[in-house]
Amino acid sequence: MLSTPNEIERIARMARAILEPIWCRWHLLDSGTVPPIPSLNTCGRSSLFLERALRDGGIDASVCRGVPQDGLELGFFDGASWRAHSWVEAEGRIIDITADQFGAPPVVIVPHPERRYRGGGRDTAAPEAIARRHRLVDEIWPLWLALASAKGRS
């Protein structure tokens, strides 16, 4: 289903608003401290959540990731180096709700391809960490459903 860029942006901003306080909880669970930029190291889980939110809105979306490895320039280019990162692609756009961890705006929506983003390489996370991402997103998914329902969507 093709949607308007405004709908993609609305969903991305709504997802980020839900996730911002949750990032603090995730950090406390992971390390006991919250970094100055709470989106730091949350891109995998956040992108998985955003992908699900976009799909819930009828938009075909998929998580993309890039992990620099074996000399390959993959992930997000922060102006100095390539950094491991995850984002979502949908309808010819890159949608990133955690780019602020690299000094970019909190929500980035740009046409694909875009020079700062390069997907590829294998997900280097352990299988347990990948399963945990899914579990954490499953745990907070009811928040999305409640908000979507309150806004008149099922």
Draw up the topology in text.
Elements: H1 5-30, H2 43-56, E1 61-66, E2 75-77, E3 82-83, E4 85-90, E5 93-96, E6 108-111, E7 117-118, H3 127-150
Antiparallel strand pairs: 1-4, 2-3, 2-7, 4-5, 5-6
Helix pairs in contact: 1-2, 2-3
Supply database-style keywords:
alpha+beta, 154 residues, 3-stranded antiparallel β-sheet, 3 helices, 4-stranded antiparallel β-sheet
**What proportion strand?**
15-25%
Walk across the major sheet and give the strand order.
1-4-5-6
Largest sheet: 4 strands, antiparallel
Annotation, overall tally of beta strands: 7
Number of discrete domains: 1
Mean pLDDT: 94
Question: Into which percent range does the helicity of residues fall?
Answer: 40-55%
- H/E element order: HHEEEEEEEH
Q: Write down the overall geometry.
A: globular
Uncertain segments of ≥5 residues (pLDDT<50)? none
Number of helices: 3
Protein name: Transglutaminase-like superfamily protein
Organism: Mesorhizobium australicum
Molecular structure report:
This protein is of the alpha+beta class. The protein has one domain. The protein is built from three helices and seven strands; from the N terminus they run ααβββββββα. The strands form two sheets. A four-stranded antiparallel sheet has the order 1-4-5-6, with helices on one face. Strands 3-2-7 form a three-stranded antiparallel sheet, with no helix packed on it. β2 and β3 (82-83) form a beta hairpin. α1 (5-30) packs antiparallel against α2. The longest helix is centred in the N-terminal third of the chain and has 26 residues, at 5-30. The protein is globular and about 50 Å long.
